[in-house]
Specification:
- The chain is an alpha+beta fold.
- The chain has one domain: Pnp Oxidase, Chain A, CATH 2.30.110.
- Strands 1, 2, 3, 4, 5, 6, 7 and 8 form an 8-stranded antiparallel beta sheet that branches.
- It is globular.
- It starts with 5 loop residues before the first helix and ends with a strand.
Length: 143
């Protein structure tokens, strides 16, 4: 897998809230979720009950999209990442690994009874106006 630009890694590492988009029956839905980022695997790990709308939709259609953005009103500072990928319920040894990653970032989650998910990013587009107006950095998984 070709490594993404360092700016993509740094941005996803620095932030912790993503907007996740699912779809069922041609009806899109968005949910905001805290995430932990695994830079080596280009995955976002988050918790969400399987009975939520986005959880139910992801079980039936694991292809998802989303974004992580810097909230600013200064045009020259606009930064954000749009991504698409596949969502997986955690299980087995991988679950222990991603559980550890998530709990390190959000220790309060230890008190919750919820489901861990792993979002494998397959495509990412970062807009970073600090590099020039409308500058885009693209990364695509090439396994």
């Amino acid at each position: 897998m070709e490594k993404p630009d360092k700016k993509i890694i740094a941005f996803l590492t620095k932030h912790h809230v993503m907007t996740l988009s699912t779809c069922a029956g041609n009806q899109p839905w968005c949910a905001n979720c805290f995430y932990a980022f695994d830079a080596e695997k280009m995955t976002l790990v988050f918790t969400s009950d399987i009975e939520t709308r986005h959880g139910r939709e992801a079980v039936n259609n694991s292809n998802v999209a989303g974004s992580v953005v810097l909230e600013t009103s200064v045009v020259g500072k606009i930064q954000g990442i749009q991504f698409s990928g596949e969502l997986f319920l955690s299980d087995g040894t991988a679950a222990e690994e991603i559980n550890s990653l998530y709990m390190k970032r959000f220790p309060f989650a230890l008190l919750m009874n919820t489901t861990l998910w792993k979002l494998r990013i397959d495509y990412a587009k970062m807009t970073d106006n600090r590099l020039g107006f409308g500058k885009k950095l693209i990364w695509e998984r090439g396994d």
